[in-house]
Each structure stands twice: as structure tokens, then as C-alpha cells.
DNA sequence: CGTTAGCACTCGTCAGTGTTGAGTGCTAAC
DNA sequence: GTTAGCACTCAACACTGACGAGTGCTAACG
């Protein structure tokens, strides 16, 4: 059996209705809808077909139908008609972003808030991976006897820092000049080149071998590892407003997932370029999120490095709106952050 | 009517029981308890008295009694017998803290996790207020044409940074030497002295008046304002495990409060020195948290500046354990963080 | 032959009802 | 002063029947 136009129409109507009401939708409801000119009986026949094809499911006899994950997949692939955000909203979003743009992390945080606010779902933003950034400046600052704080500034204005041990007897001025050398040698180098540059430096400046060794180790670790603070979550309480989470246990396990940044990172794993990626239900690999959908987009900082922004919500999600918002937000974020470049 | 020893004993037994079960406790339950050698009937008479005195309440006739806020207050003030954490646990906590002690914010974050893990409630930690810290180092780093990143390192190893505009025509070396001057002039100065020092600098170096002006403004703002990232929350999902939050709406409003850092800050407002502060139910001023108790302690960094750590849970909270954990944690945190000094 | 009206059937929801058991307050006896 | 006994209260629970939303099937209609 194939899907003809009428089946598409009816399926779409069912999904649209279910997205807003979260209640199984019956034939009469669809029949009454404008744009569908058939009687409930006809609709019922079609619904029966759609169920056989795996697009609909019935929670129990004598209940209406609800869309299956397969239906959502079809919906986002073919049936969706992307709407543009209205100008007011665009304006508002942009304002919120630029407003606090003193600092990259601040921007990202408020972006998460705006996202979850605009969609009423939970938003997640992953900061650009350090490895894809370039070093702009390295600075050692003495904080204690044999301890210094190493500060790494990248081309996106993102700052990373770590404590390192330094040999005894180095005063602030020494660290100052070492920083200078480090910066000169590492500036604008991508990750691959850092190790190379260090090798050269080690040859030239044998007297600070231990310090440099530790510094290299810390830089590499920082560049590669992604640490917790790189993930920002907004509106985690939002999902509790939806009936699918009125069961406290479901809600709790959902929130527990949000607290484990590792899982979140896994879920948001790369999606190329500017496009929108949609994972419906079990399509994302985390069992605890199997009745969630995850929509992600990406944003750019500078030319290469990019981060991910996404929305997590029930499979019954307003895909239309979420896609619009994410798309717009991705661009806006890229704009704002690339100013620093 | 006065509280005699037997009333104390019974009240304590009731609270102990209610804390663990969350169910109204009846006379028979108490009577069976070891240490209480009276029949249910006697207990009933005493309970009746305690109710009249406002220490107990009955959800409805023919239900057991539950402790009132007044009872909890009495409990924490007089009846509590602080227990020491067992050595294993102390050891474990310390390990977790020291383990990741490369960076102040990392320590604080893992402290929050340990806290909520050890208590099964929600934990909140406020980083030391910047105003109480001393500046250790100031560094300007060029990031774009007319933009620089100003990095402020404090004596606790806490790093703050902000974008500032710089006059055209300043290259990295210029910023370098300005940073040097800034550091020399501001190092080890507390907040009050910063403005004064700036005034002097402005007199000496008239040519960079605008840059210095902006820098001062940013520093002052950073020192005074407390920004969102200063508050770390752990185990926000923990509370959902308790029956008092099995109502999704309650849970949601609780989580909403956690997301508004301003409210949290208000709730955790200062409590002098090392002591433990307990606010039961309406004693904290936030209506949304009126059926929560909040227990806070503080930790020190260096000599003056201190931060707050706290636990938020249902009024029916295991005060004994929470107090022990907070007390130990406050000390441990002070130890770990003061190493940087 | 596609569409629709009619009808019997299913099943979740809701209100009403009786039973059970935990717990109380009171009284009288120890 | 303490306790046993008893009548009373009331939430929780299971059961019931009425109701209604919704379905599938069949027969009639254009």
C-alpha cells in the first residue's frame, strides 16, 4: 500500500493535533478540521490503513490514534513547512544576545536561556571545541610559592586556565618573560603545531625544561579534553510542564541525564555544517532519552571551529517552531561570536 | 504548660520517625520504639498536649501527627546530637575534593557534587565574593582590532575576565606594558584602594586616560557584581525522590527557583563566620521555598573572603546528617582553597 | 466504486458505595 | 499516674454501574 495525498493530509492533521493536545486524536476531530472534507467514517478507514503501515498506534481499543516515531520522521522529512520567525521575535532574540556580549561564555549562557524561553523546551549549547581554536595568548601568573596560573586565550575570546607547578626561584618577572616567549612561539598555531613548537623551545631554553614540559602537558590536555563547563543547559524545568513528564520518575530520570554532561555531549555529537539534525525517540542512542526528540544545529566561531546548539523535548515536539528558532539562533550566535575574531 | 523531659523524648522520637518515613506517626509506633517505655495511650495524651503547644499537627482526624516548623526549630536548637562523619566518609569526601584541585572553580563544582551526593538533597555553593578578594594580577590581551580581553587574577586563584574596548593603534606590546603598570599599581590592593590607585595612574599617564577609565569601570563592576557563574548547584534532581515533591507542579516551581540565581543568592545571604545557619520553612523569605529548609555553612579563602555552601531540602530534613556534612565540608573546602594563597 | 450513515462493541473515566484499618479521644479500672 | 478498652473518624482501596469517546463493520447511497 502506498501513501496517497489524502493519507498525507490526514497524517499531517493528526500530528498537528497531537502535537498541541497530547491526547489521542479521533476521526471526528480530524473530520471537523478545516481543510479536510471527509466524514469521520472515511477518516477512520484511512486511519486504519495508516496504522497498518506503522504510522499510527492506538493506546487501546476505542481510543484515538497517536503518531508513531515513523510518522514523526516522515513529518520532519516531508511534511514540514518551515515558517520564518516573525520580525518582533527575531529582534528580541538578537537583542538579548548582543546585550550581554561582553564575554563569550556570557553570550552562550544567555543564548541557552533565550532558546529555552522561545521554545519552552530544554536547551543545550556546547561551546566550540578548543582543539579547533587557535591560541592567541599565553600568560603565566604567580599565585603562590611554587604555583602559577596559566591562562590561555584563544581567538574566539574564550579563556582557559589551569594551575601548574613551577620550579622554585622564579619571580613574577621571570614568568612574565616566559609568557612572552610562549605567546610568541604559540600564537596563531593550531593544536598540531603546538607540540612541534614546544620541541623547538625545549631545545633553545634547556633551563626551563620542566616548566615547559608541564605547560605543554596542560595545554594539550585543555585543548583536547572538553570539560564540564563547556556545556550549558537552559530551561531544565521546562519539560515538567508537559504531560509526558507528569510522572515524577520519568521527570527525575530525565533531569538526571541532564546532570551528566558526558551523556549530553554524546547525544549532541557532531552534525556537519549549518544544517539541522533531528533525532526522534530511539534514534538517539541514549536509552533514558528514548521518548525524547533532539534537534540540533551548529554555530561557527571564526572560520573553522564550531559548536552545537540543540533542543530536547518530547517526541511530540513542535518541530516547525523548534527548527525555525534553532536555525535563526545558530546564525545569530555565529554573528555575535565572530565579531571577536 | 511546660515541656518536661518526657515530652522532649516523645517529640524527638516523632521527629526522628517522620524524617525517615514522611508518614504521619501514630502513638503505637512511638510506643514500640526502644527507649520509650510507655503505652500508646500515654503517648497519645502527651501528643495531645504537644499539639496544643503547637509542636505537632494532625493532617486530619484519625491520622497520626506530624511535626510543625516550630518543632523542627526546637529540634535543631536543643534536641540535636551532632554526629561525626565516619572516617571512611571523611576520607572519601576529601579525596574527591583534592582530586580535581587544579582550579578553584573545578573544586567548587565537584564540592557541590559531593555535597548533594552525600546528603541526597540539593546543594548550592556560592563562590567567594570578589570584592573581598585582592587583585593579584591584571593582564590585557589583544583579541581584535579595538578589543582586548582584560583578565583579573585574584589571590584565591579565581580568574575573571571581560572584554574592553581599547583606543586604536595599541599593539600587543603596548598592552603588555600597560598590563605591567596596572598590575604593579593594583596588586594586593583591596577594592577600596583600587579607585584611589586609578586616580593616581590617571594623573601620571594622561595619554591612556580612556583605556584606563574603561578598565576601572570593568574592574569595579566585576568586583561588585556577582555574576551567575558564581553559584553552583548540584543534585537538583535529588529532591524529586522525596514524596513531598511527587506533585509535578511543586517540583517544577522548585526547579524554577533553582534556575533563578538571584533568588538563590538572596536565600543564601550571609551568615557570619564558620557557624551553621538553619532556616526552616517560612523562615527563609522566598515564598516558593516555604516548605523547604535551608542549611548553610561558610568557607574561607585566605584570611578574609568567604563563600557559602548550603543544602536545600524538605523541612523534614535529616538535620543531623546535613549539619555534619556541611560542617566537615566547609572546613575541607577552606583547607583545599587556602592552599593557593 | 468510493463515500457515508448507522449500529454494536470496547474500554477508559468518573462518581458513588461499602469495607478495611490505622489512629484518636474518652472513660474507667489498675 | 498509667493503661486497657471501646466507640468513633476518616483516608485508602476496591468494586460497581453509567457515560461517552472512539472504533470496526455493514449496508445503503450517488
Gyration radius of chain A, in Å: 26 Å
Which pair of chains forms the biggest interface, and how many residues does each contribute?
A: A-B, 45 and 45 residues
Q: What is the arithmetic mean of pLDDT of chain A?
A: 85
- Oligomeric status: homodimer
Bulk shape of chain A: elongated
Would you give the CATH topology of the largest domain in chain A? Beta-Lactamase
CATH class category name of the largest domain in chain A:
Alpha Beta
SSE string of chain A, helix = H, strand = E?
A: HHHEEHHHEEEEHHHEHHEEEH
Helix count of chain A equals 12
Q: Ranges of chain A with pLDDT <50 over ≥5 residues?
A: none
SS-based class of chain A: alpha+beta
Strand content of chain A: 15-25%
Could you describe the largest sheet of chain A, including whether it forms a barrel? 5 strands, antiparallel
What is the helix content of chain A? 40-55%
Strand order of the largest sheet of chain A: 7-3-10-9-8
Looking at the overall shape, the CATH architecture of the largest domain in chain A is 2-Layer Sandwich
How many individual β-strands of chain A? Answer: 10
Distance between the termini of chain A: 55 Å
Overall tally of structural domains of chain A? 3
CATH superfamily membership of the largest domain in chain A: GAF domain
